[in-house]
Amino acid sequence: MENLALLKLLHGLAGVLLLVALFALAGFCWRSRRVAAPPTDAAAEKGLAAEAEPTTEAEDAEAVEATEEAQAAEATEVDVPGRSSPWPALCAILLLLCLVGLPVSGWWLAHLAGWPLGQPWLLGSSLLFLPGSLCGLWLASRVVGGKPGVRLGLGLALVGLLCFAASLGLMVVKPL
Q1: Which residue of 124, 126, 133, 141 has the smallest Cβ count within 10 Å?
Q2: Vertex 94: Cα angle to 25 and 99 (nearest 5)
Q3: 59: which residues sit within 8 A by CB, 6+ positions away?
Q4: pLDDT tens-digit readout, 148-173
């Protein structure tokens, strides 16, 4: 009986780590977005005023410096060439390990508990695990490859999270 309790604990921990890795990959997608702030009315009026009046070299240098500072503030770690973060790759590896380990530990749990594999909640959770896994792997490959695409990445994360949450719900409730 101790083996069953330990295996349940490890299976639950792997499920939580899977969701954490998927949330982290979604976060990396969100961070990679490019947001261009629209010019404010004051800035537009200043630009019109600057066109009407001749500017000095010092004002031009200040404007260039302000533009460079604004561009540097918008840059993220993903945009800096030569400096890539290891976190997306580590999250992808964690996701892959959980995706491989969960079906094995789930089958082992069902075997130790004596549940037949033909029960509807086991079949349903297995069927939900497949599209969730595919979405998670696709998301991980896009994030690690450096082309996350915010809309597609967040869509993949949402579908994966919904599939895994529904699978988790079936496993917790165990409707017969």
Answers
A1: 141
A2: 95
A3: 50
A4: 778 888 899 999 999 999 998 898 88
